[in-house]
Amino acid sequence: MSEPFPDAGPRPSDAGPRASDAGSRASDASPRPSDAGPRPGEGGDSGEAVRLRDTYDKVARAYDAQLADELDHKPLDRALLAAFLELAGPGRIADVGCGPGHVTRFLAARHPDVTGLDLSPEMIAIARERAPEIPFTVASMLSLPVADGAWAGAVAMYSIIHLSPPDRVAAFGELARAIRGDGRLLVSFHVEGPDVPAGGTSHLTSWFGAQVDVDVHFLDPDAVRADLVAAGFRIESTMLREPLDPAEFPSRRAYLLARRVR
């Protein structure tokens, strides 16, 4: 998705720092065949997942209104997404935790076979309104509704930041299962913010004018790299960057490009 702190938008009122038990993108998420969402027992029916889904459902319209054009102001993100597509090659590309589909649309304008998945039905409804020609699915990244090796690659742009460490491991295992051998994965996340160190967590209670109940995890790049390697990926590139302009939430961010090797 995108980042949980909308660039140039409302900041969390309660302590600082986007859905991912999976499934939505707070900037800065993830899918299943039925629009009803994940089935019980597949990682999407926990209380945490329900809170995450409800949060993104509540803010979906405001989120889309503010972040639909965010890539226009993020040249490094655009460059990484373009490089990812070139490396992934032919085959289906998945935007996991796609939110309202702005990253999905960017990918689909440059690749003929792209799909988007997200935990939030409201986010998926908006994505379909904006791009009816792209297949979008409500699903959890903890239980992806695809066959083994179905994807040439996947992007998870800020969609892992709501996951607990065990769920992050499970999500990377699912992505490794869904991505074919030598396929690519691009993951981005917040590393640290003004009041939250790497490895810290911020709890949001108000966002886009709505009352919410969701945690945002700031992640240590070394820990995420280790989880990806354990899941069967090799890290091919790491980029760390600072905020690009005053309108962007002032967090340090990481981008990991990985190849599935086993």
Give the helix tally: 6
Shape: globular
Mean pLDDT: 86
| Low-confidence runs of at least 5 consecutive residues | 7-23, 28-44
Terminal residue distance: 26 Å
Proportion of helical residues: 25-40%
- As a whole number of angstroms, the C-alpha radius of gyration is 16 Å
Order of helices and strands: HHEHEHEEHEEEHEE
Beta-strand residue percentage: 25-35%
Largest sheet properties: 7 strands, mixed
Description:
By secondary structure, the chain is α/β, with parallel strands linked by helices. Helices cover 29% and strands 25% of the residues. The protein is built from six helices and nine strands, in the order H-H-E-H-E-H-E-E-H-E-E-E-H-E-E. The strands form two sheets. Strands 3-2-1-4-5-9-8 form a seven-stranded mixed beta sheet, with helices on both faces. A two-stranded antiparallel sheet has the order 6-7. Strand 2, helix 4 and strand 3 form a beta-alpha-beta unit. Helix 1 (47-67) runs parallel beside helix 4. The chain is globular. The two termini are 26 Å apart. Residues 7-23 and 28-44 have low confidence and may be disordered.
